[in-house]
């Protein structure tokens, strides 16, 4: 509880009189003093007025005081100034102090030495950058009220045990500090076990959590499990779920059933793609659930404008749904190069729609040069199959001689993650 600065030693009668006078003062400025009845108050109105004016200079309004009247039980010199001085010392900008106190007024009751400093030291021990400490505490000020040996330590230990790199804990805290307050047995572990049961290898899941820590905030019963069920009900194959989730983790937290219904209807109406084709496209590019209709239709209209029949455009989209995220300006450049420089029949694009996803300068033009060399027999290159992945097996990457030394030393899960996931 806060320390109180007393003016003089008073008897019981004098204290009652002082309390009445102070209560009348607080009522006169709009503060409801009911919650202060059981709290020791200063002996004079002047001391209380000092507290009120100090808080107002900090940016705390009368309404804020009514939201948390116990602020007025804190001594300016013994509570407020030491706490605010410490917050400023660890990097809080002075104009932000009032906002922080408004969001977490309980901080004024805290002991700098016993409560605040140990939490900050704990965060630094997790490799949270010193400059990020104010940001973390502003997002999740309740951290200052946690016991170090309780939830915070347990959450960190569990995440490390499933493969999260200890050096990534600091950035994870900065990105999503709320996981430090989550119960392992009640929240974190059930979510992890659910995702593993879907076929996600633990190491890939650990990499996902390092980059997208906010996944831990998705409610398992209310959001994650219904979204998995929605994907299956819309035709996504169970064996495709791990790669789909790894490629687009936010899909676990979206209002998914409504989005899937909207996009499936759009695909059927505008793109002439049936539900099965929609499911296959979704497996290859789950981000399509978040694309707007205008974004989707622009590349489709471009392809149709080149004389490609609707049925072939649909087939191209199902084969390479990444087309829907292409910029039409770049597609135009690639298309005109294909026609004027490469002089290839447009039918080739039907079977190789991925062409539009390649960079014209860094991929298409150099490839075209090698193609011409091959025609002149100056360059020989055997056709190779693309990567294949079967859940439960190993990543089969034909042409493994092209894989870097770093990839040779990594596990199959790591190679899969880099090749199928773009976080």
TrEMBL record:
It comes from the Eukaryota. One of its GO terms (cellular component) is chloroplast stroma. It is found in: Plastid, Chloroplast stroma. This is Transcription termination factor MTERF4, chloroplastic. Keywords: Chloroplast, Plastid, Transcription, Transcription regulation, Transcription termination, Transit peptide. Its main location: plastid. Pfam families: mTERF. InterPro entries: MTERF (IPR003690), MTERF_sf (IPR038538). Belongs to the mTERF family.
